Amino acid sequence: MVQNLQKLCSMMTEKIFLQIINSLRAEATEEVSLDSPEREPILSSEPSPAVTPVTPTTLIAPRIESKSLSAPVIFDRSREEIEEEANGDVFDIEIGVSDPEKVGDGMNAYMAYRVTTKTSLSMFSKSEFSVKRRFSDFLGLHSKLASKYLHVGYIVPPAPEKSIVGMTKVKVGKEDSSSTEFVEKRRAALERYLQRTVKHPTLLQDPDLRQFLESSELPRAVNTQALSGAGILRMVNKAADAVNKMTIKMNESDAWFEEKQQQFENLDQQLRKLHASVEALVCHRKELSANTAAFAKSAAMLGNSEDHTALSRALSQLAEVEEKIDQLHQEQAFADFYMFSELLSDYIRLIAAVKGVFDHRMKCWQKWEDAQITLLKKRETEAKMMVANKPDKIQQAKNEIREWEAKVQQGERDFEQISKTIRKEVGRFEKERVKDFKTVIIKYLESLVQTQQQLIKYWEAFLPEAKAIA
Amino acid sequence: MKVLEGLDDGPDFLSEEDRGLKAINVDLQSDAALQVDISDALSERDKVKFTVHTKSSLPNFKQNEFSVVRQHEEFIWLHDSFIENEDYAGYIIPPAPPRPDFDASREKLQKLGEGEGSMTKEEFTKMKQELEAEYLAIFKKTVAMHEVFLCRVAAHPILRKDLNFHVFLEYNQDLSVRGKNKKEKLEDFFKNMVKSADGVIVSGVKDVDDFFEHERTFLLEYHNRVKDASAKSDRMTRSHKSAADDYNRIGSSLYALGTQDSTDICKFFLKVSELFDKTRKIEARVSADEDLKLSDLLKYYLRESQAAKDLLYRRSRSLVDYENANKALDKARAKNKDVLQAETSQQLCCQKFEKISESAKQELIDFKTRRVAAFRKNLVELAELELKHAKGNLQLLQNCLAVLNGDT
């Protein structure tokens, strides 16, 4: 396998080579913890096109557990992929979620969303295509990806949250603004979810994801209902996990992990606080909008009853200005929410996924640790059998020892693998986070700029009217 | 907390207030004959002590320039003495200033003190500064409103000559006007009830004079609408302030994120946090200016339109008296009994009515002139301030974006 990689190295075109050099330069201060030096150029933490974390061995193991496509295909495809990308494909895929449409009636009704993919990646059969999906389909996709990748250390983006209340209102057919808002909020969240998922180079390769994006018919994901048996089982498992976490005392040999965990804990807290403040802002801005509208009407009435003509006209103009400002506040509240607030809540959930991945590493360690303990016990049993001189039992003991030695080795390998993957993933995550925050916050500030520019326009128009009062 | 004129630790909008507020709601020409202002004020527990400063060339006063210390109750006493004076029935009595109300602010300061443990030092200092600025703003407002009252009286050709007013300005001892006790407050309450009941009766009488008829219809409607607009404007300004306060918290959170983050985004967060802090100051000023130029204006004209309505009421009352006197005279003539008495009474009523009508007409015309001028001034200033702040905000945001885009 190493030889294959070396061959690929030399196959890379200049463009991709330069890209990697640049990304390595950018990460001068960031640590890239990888063991085999010849792998370095490919396996940098930058999610650049030619870089796919090629660790197919671990991918095979989870594959067997899932009900989707078989392992060898994935391996072949990923090598194909690298070859294709080496030939000049650019990481270019755009997902849009649009046109929410209510299907059916009553409590069995659901919203269908159009998922449109635009891409130049050759792994897809077309360059532009769309399918209809419902919310539970998204949840099903996430469930599949999580079961395959989470426990080997990949940070799988979490799906948007279920909302029984919100959905019921829509099902029942309330055509009011709160249900339209709810649908829009969900649509935007689903779009962001898919965009994050396809940005992940490993997940992008996954056949389930591709099936989700491409195939017109999708088997219905049944175990995602909020109150289903499987749902309750999941909740129970989560609780058990929490208890386990408390009892696992891991000997952390790598300070990096402890440090990172602490950092993520702090980040989580800070983001929650910020999120609460931004939500308050959204609320107050909406209030301001409503109060401005009320004042505008009141000012208009006052203008009507004022018997001095010029003043009356000015007051009516004031009312008009305030009405326009009310619109402005509404738009700004919209931006406050969809840009700032949702970014924060997305990241709060993403960090939960990151924490989950760290937890899996701990469990992996525990497994390894347990295997070592069992091996020790088996060796003791062997020694006892030797003393007691029971030849058939000795043989059995020796067999078991061999078995557990293999398990210990596997455990160590798994642990090292997951640690490596996590380091890469965290590096990638941090880069994404920085990029995301910068992009969104800059966009948000630009929305604030727009609001101020509009305000200036409105007041500049009003000023001469006020001065004209004679 | 002693507040001296020079001790402005808040943003400069406070000094704008200082100069502008004297003429903010009323367009007065103060002349050398009599100039009144409040030169200083002291807030002590729940009392506010105003230093009333007078400059006058009138012979009525012992000196040309002098000051006394007065409290809110003494202003009310002066106002009530005008109301109760029959001679002033034909004038719009300048509305009394509202009682200084620091309860809300004091409560907030107290809550802040209690919650000190649950927030960071920076947050606590920020909020404390905020609340102190708020307290200061309310304080300056109450000073301004008391001052406006005195200026209106001083500018009125008749009221400025009032003896009680001179005593108020000059007598440097406590006027010993205790606040009304329960009994008196109850009496007032009943008087007001009677007045409004009367008002209903009296307003039913259609006025022969077109001018007054028009004025009555106008004032009734105007008063109600100003009341509504004033309330809505208040709510709007308060929401604006809440949003500005949120910016404060967001700025603090971003600062915390910036100082704790391990990636290169920390500089970014710190810059944005700084932006939110600065933009918040501007938003707070916008809210304060809207409060001053719009809400306060409307509140003042709510009180003034009420005073104008009261004038109309008094005129109607005197009209009713006049008509009753006429009927009494006719009866007396018919019976040929006490005719002289009835004649005198009727003449008095007639004179009173005509005197009131004449001065009322002038007062109402002046009211309109003052109102138009005040609205013009305030609306222009409001628009100018909104523009100034929006431009300031825009500048801040654009500068910040330039820096952020340059970095990334």
From TrEMBL, chain A:
PROSITE patterns: PX
GO cellular component, one term: retromer complex
GO-annotated biological processes: protein transport
Keyword check for Acetylation: yes
MF terms in GO: phosphatidylinositol binding
Membrane topology reported for the UniProt record: Peripheral membrane protein
Domain of life: Eukaryota
Keywords per UniProt: Acetylation, Cell projection, Coiled coil, Endosome, Lipid-binding, Membrane, Phosphoprotein, Protein transport, Transport
Domain PX per the UniProt entry, residue ranges: 91-220
Family statement: Belongs to the sorting nexin family.
Protein name stated in the entry: Sorting nexin-2
Species of the source: Equus caballus (Horse)
Lineage, broadest ranks: Eukaryota, Metazoa, Chordata, Craniata, Vertebrata
UniProtKB/TrEMBL annotation, chain B:
Annotated InterPro entries: AH/BAR_dom_sf, BAR_SNX6, PX_dom, PX_dom_sf, PX_SNX6, SNX5/SNX6/SNX32, Vps5_C
Every PX domain range: 28-175
Any Gene Ontology CC annotation: endosome
A Pfam family per the record: Vps5
Keywords: Protein transport, Transport
Membrane-spanning ranges: none
Example GO BP: intracellular protein transport
Signal peptide positions on this chain: none
An example molecular function term from Gene Ontology annotations: phosphatidylinositol binding
SUPFAM superfamilies, alphabetized: BAR/IMD domain-like, PX domain
Annotated family: Belongs to the sorting nexin family.
Function in brief: Involved in several stages of intracellular trafficking.
Protein name, per record: Sorting nexin
Organism of provenance: Equus caballus
The gene coding this protein: SNX6
